[in-house]
Design a protein that fits this description.
The protein has 101 residues and is α+β, with helices and mostly antiparallel strands. It has a single domain, classed as OB fold (Dihydrolipoamide Acetyltransferase, E2P) (Beta Barrel). The chain contains one helix and eight strands, in the order αββββββββ. The strands form two sheets. Strands 1-2-3-8-7 form a five-stranded mixed β-barrel. The protein is globular.
Length: 101
Amino acid sequence: MSAERDVHAWAAASVAARHVGETFMATVMAVTDFGAFVLMDDLNAEGLLLPELMGKSRVELSPEFQRVRLGRSQTLSLGSRVRVRVERVDAFKRNVDLSLA
């Protein structure tokens, strides 16, 4: 199963690499202490929404509550719908870095 997950992640990153700079609707799947993982609808690929690319001066990640607080007025949690932009992709490392669009 581990090999299957690795191949799927590599394939998803390879597809995302062809869409750098494009925007997609996505669903928040998990919040960690280093960002939020989202699943992009059209690509069926997971990526990491990085705090420094969320476009707010203050970003508070709360993995224990699975929540991201953006500034004072906006909160993202599991299942939240967001528009993201593909910023960087490293298919070898299976990393897809995203920003809020």
